[in-house]
C-alpha cells in the first residue's frame, strides 16, 4: 500500500492538566474522516493515522478509497 500521497490535517493543542501542560497532536485523514491518529509528537500522530488506515483498508486501500473519488 502506497500511503505517501494521503492528504491529512495535522493540528496541535496545548492542554493544561493542572500539574503540567502537554502539547497533543491530532492527525486527521482527509479522505476518510473517521480515521485519525493522536500522539504526543507529530510523528506519533501520523503513525497512528497510517496504522489505522492500514488496519481498516489493508491491501485494498487504493481500490476502496481512491476509486470513490
Structure report:
The protein is α+β, with helices and mostly antiparallel strands and 69 residues long. Helices cover 32% and strands 32% of the residues. The chain has 2 helices and 3 strands; from the N terminus they run βββαα. It has helices at 42-57, 61-66, and strands at residues 8-16, 21-29, 36-39. Strands 1-2-3 form a 3-stranded antiparallel β-sheet. Strand 2 and strand 3 form a beta hairpin. The protein is elongated, with a radius of gyration of 14 Å. The protein starts with 7 loop residues before the first strand and ends with a helix. The model has no long low-confidence stretch (mean pLDDT 85).
Secondary-structure topology with pairs:
Layout: E1 8-16, E2 21-29, E3 36-39, H1 42-57, H2 61-66
Antiparallel strand pairs: 1-2, 2-3
Amino acid at each position: 500500500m502506497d500511503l505517501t500521497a494521503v492528504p491529512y490535517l495535522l493540528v496541535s493543542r496545548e492542554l493544561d492538566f493542572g500539574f503540567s501542560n502537554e502539547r497533543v497532536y491530532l492527525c486527521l485523514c482527509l479522505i476518510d474522516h473517521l480515521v485519525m491518529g493522536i500522539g504526543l509528537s507529530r510523528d506519533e500522530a501520523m503513525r497512528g493515522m497510517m496504522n489505522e488506515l492500514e488496519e481498516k483498508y489493508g491491501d485494498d486501500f487504493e481500490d476502496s478509497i481512491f476509486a470513490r473519488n
